[in-house]
Amino acid sequence: MSDVALIVFSNRGRLYEYANNSVKATIDRYKKDCVDSLNPGSVSVANTQFYEQESTKLRRQIRDILNTNRQILGEDLGTLKFKELKNLETKVEKAIGRIHSKKNELLFAEIEFMQKRIAETERAQQQLNMMPASEYRPMTSQTYDVQNFLPVNIMEPYPQQLS
After folding, report:
1. Mean pLDDT across the chain, nearest whole number?
2. Cα torsion for 58, 61, 63, 66, to the nearest 10°?
């Protein structure tokens, strides 16, 4: 599709315009294309400069992060002044505090989970103890499956009595 714009000024100074899209958009496009055609490398040069600046900035950030990581691990501390060392120590202490908090949170969650499992096991044991004695008898010795070495039955039902 082509963009067409027609601008006419009459002898009396009146302005007439016609465009299949937008006169302003067509004129802006024309101006942009004229500037680009006069200096075809300007856009690519500008892009190249922008990306070079960004890569330099990112390299500097990476270098700073690596230095900070080494310092947190206790390496490359020779260039730091007392105040910088004190700030680093404070950051490390705060990080250790967050680590301890997270560790305790996980431990408490695990303890709670285990307590729930113990309570469930105790409830199941109570229900088993409430069953009439005629329905089960505790085994005096454990029976094992010879092939897999696993217990076969913990509780064995009484054999049916023939009368």
Report:
1. 80
2. -120
Residue 158 lies in a domain: no
Flag whether pLDDT at 65 surpasses 50. yes
DSSP-assigned letter for residue 9 = E
- 158 alpha-carbon distance from chain centroid: 57
- Helices H / strands E in the chain, number of each: 3, 4
Using alpha carbons only, how large is the chain's radius of gyration in Å? 41
Does pLDDT of 62 surpass 90?
yes
Q: Are 16 and 29 in contact (CB under 8 A)?
A: no
20, 53: one domain = no
The pLDDT of residue 134 is 58
Paired tokens of 125: 């044991």
